[in-house]
Design a protein that fits this description.
mainly alpha, 13 helices
């Protein structure tokens, strides 16, 4: 339906339909109806229930296989495989009748909640003008109907629980057991059906936003997809790796994953360039800082050398001047002594 609304060419994908089994179990005069009917019969029995099933579905349904040896056994061909049921005490379990004396004790209990629960414990359904007590199957079917109605009203996200092994070990992983569970639950078949069509899709605006960096093409989404994938889209006459709908672009299995890998590689290359540029800036700043520090150290050292030389020269000149003045003074003293004599 979505493909038709989007105008996307597609081929019908055949998938297993479990409607025949559902009809056999819960349809008109199916297993549940026959079991309930046998429960209200005065002399109903398990063998009579299986015999009636064989009469109704033994030749008409391909999903029902009667057992030739045991009269209380039959086999149903489920999606996951054939399952053989033994209808031993099914009528008793389906009736699930509580002894009246116990029900009376519970209703007369001084515990208010218990007495209220058992005061309305007998639930009846009107069938063909008679009041019939609801059986276990009837209650389960009603609860299942309510659950399906609730699911239809809400947006449900399923969490599929898979049992990794049968020995309750956290370190053991039984591959065959896990695959068998996935196959029986229909997960593998659902994946196969999804991959046969267009399992991945993106809105038109999302394609250039995510993958515009992979090419320089500017234009419509179709032109961008042609430049990215290098192939023509799917049409009614031929198949293709992608299809462009009215609001979304649909991709075959593996196409979107390849584009995402190319995008991750492109982003990785750009990240490397940014990291290299940042390292360059950081090392340049560190180099300039070290260079400026070295200049200051050199200037201080040169100043220290020049000051020592200056002080040494000053001290030598002062010493030379004092020696010269002392020499001149001695000569004047000697001249004065000669003149007195």
């Amino acid at each position: 339906q979505e493909y038709d609304e989007e105008g996307v060419p597609w081929t019908h994908v055949a998938f297993p339909d479990n409607a025949a089994v559902l009809t056999l179990i819960e349809g008109r005069m199916g297993i549940i109806d026959v079991l309930n009917e046998e429960c209200v019969r005065p002399r109903g029995s398990d063998e009579g229930f299986v015999s009636k099933l064989t009469t109704l579905h033994g030749t008409e349904s391909t999903r029902y296989i009667p057992h030739k040896m045991n009269k209380d056994q039959f086999t149903i061909k489920h999606y996951a495989g054939d399952v053989t049921y033994t209808a031993h005490h099914w009528l008793e379990r389906n009736t699930d009748a509580l002894p009246e004396d116990l029900a009376g004790v519970a209703r007369s209990s001084s515990f208010t909640m218990l007495s209220q629960l058992f005061s309305s414990s007998v639930v009846t359904t009107k069938k063909k003008g008679k009041l019939v007590k609801d059986t276990v199957c009837t209650k389960f079917k009603a609860q299942l109907t309510l659950l399906m109605e609730e699911i239809e009203r809400t947006t449900v996200q399923y969490v599929r629980c898979v049992k990794p092994n049968s020995i309750k070990s956290s370190s053991h992983y039984d591959v065959e057991m896990v695959v068998d569970q996935l196959r029986c639950a229909g997960v593998i078949e659902a994946i196969r059906v999804a991959r046969a069509g267009y399992p991945n899709k993106l809105p038109h605006a999302e394609v250039p936003r995510r993958f515009g960096l992979l090419c320089d093409t500017s234009g419509s989404t179709l032109q961008l997809c042609k430049a990215l994938i290098g192939e023509e889209p799917a049409t009614q006459k031929r198949d293709g790796p992608y299809a462009v709908g009215s609001t979304r672009v649909y991709f075959k299995a593996g196409v979107l994953e390849a584009l995402e890998r190319r995008r991750a590689d492109a982003l990785g290359e750009r990240a490397i360039v940014v990291q290299a540029r940042w390292r360059q800036i950081r090392h340049t700043r560190r180099y300039k800082s070290a260079k400026q520090g070295a200049k200051k150290v050199q200037a201080r050292h040169r100043r220290y050398i020049a000051r020592r030389l200056y002080l040494k020269t000053k001290a030598a000149s002062i010493l030379a001047q004092s020696a010269r003045r002392a020499l001149m003074a001695r000569k004047r003293v000697a001249a004065l002594r000669r003149n007195r004599a």
